[in-house]
Request: fold
Amino acid sequence: MKLDKRMLDRLLTMNDEQLTQVIQSIATEAGIDPATLGLQTDQIQALRAALGGATEEDLQRMGEVYQAYRQNRRSP
Reply:
């Protein structure tokens, strides 16, 4: 998954329900049970605010962390 500022801006224009579905989809792809996330409306709003200030460098680092997590999940 490659997340750049343009894609992030598009995600942030989604309503809370749509953004929650995208987050759950990403969690499923990463091997996380979305039910364990327990996303609430206030958490989505806080996440939206935090991601709104992300720089390209922040997004690159998030991508690196995500890839490392996925690789570690596959390793015995």
User: Anything to note?
Assistant: Residues 61 and 67 are 10 Å apart (CA to CA). The first helix runs from residue 5 to 12. The mean pLDDT is 86. The helical segments are 5-12, 16-29, 41-52, 56-74.
